[in-house]
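Q: I have 361 residues here and want to know how they pack in 3D. Can you give me a structure?
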Amino acid sequence: MKNKFWLAFSAIENIDGNFIHRLYNYFGDIEEAFNADMHELSQIDGLSVKKAETFLRERDKIDPEKALYGVENRGINYVTLEDDKYPKMLKQIEDPPAVLYYKGDLFGCNLERTVAVVGSRKSTYHAKDAVNKIISELVGTDICIVSGLAAGIDTSAHTAALENNLKTIGVIASGFDFIYPTSNKNLYEKIEKGGGAVVTEYYPTFQPLKFRFPQRNRIVSGLSYGTLVAEASLKSGALITANLCLEQGRELMCIPGLISNPNTEGIYKLLKNGATLVTQAQDILEALNWEIKPAEQLKINLEGLSSTEEKILDAIEVEEKNADEIALETKIDIDELLTTLTTMELKGIIKQVTGDRYKRI
């Protein structure tokens, strides 16, 4: 079983993916690459002697069988670079992960319709609201939202995807022994338990160290056909992801924001350099040349609504409202209103959002 050697390679903290790729490409067999000696390594053009020595020293501490057990015992799934199921968009980047670990249903996501959404950790309400609006307009499609499971825009993107029955992929900067930030624990669980998948290139015991966050950004953009940036200062992880997106030859898109906000300086720089301006979901579809038809079961037939249902829809036409606000505007008895709201949710006409408010789908 060759997989244990892929996992053993990835369990060595002091070597990177490029080193593994070079050895694998040279030997053509991952087991031979893992068991190579110094003489064999010295035959590889341009391979640093220091890196080779580091690899040999650290390799001797790794038992491939234990590396395999450490993953499978934790209930973690994985695909290796030589696996036919390895995501094709990710395989095309310059430095694809040698192993992609995941929890959840990665292949239940449509990997042919992936859009990354990234932005500031200290995002404004305006940016979060814009992300929610745009993602909600994708309801009924099979588009998959990719992000980094960080605070701020990442959290908003994943949450909006789940609320609108879209699959989502969260790319983390550590192994699965860690949850970062801890405030997103419930979000991790929702994604893993049916909302999509959480993925990482790091062996389970690897900590969320600072340098790993920029590294994981290439996976966020690498899994995606295009990247949508919601907010980004001139020195930000989101801008790093945007540049990686361009390097990878993918479509770069930006949501405009307030010009007085420092977090939009990077946005307007990207827009001036040719990024696509996005104010609605249709802009994404046009930029990626996707013709997406809503899933049949999510098409809403608004014919035959009761007068009460019509009043409720009119009340929330422009903005979300809670039950008390709807009752005040429509003069509908509160008991009848609550019953009707529940019925409309079940029909898929409206949905409940943060703060016990209701919005049209």
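Q: Anything worth noting?
A: Residues 295-300 have pLDDT under 50 and may be disordered. Residues 106-287 form a domain with the Rossmann fold fold (CATH 3.40.50.450).
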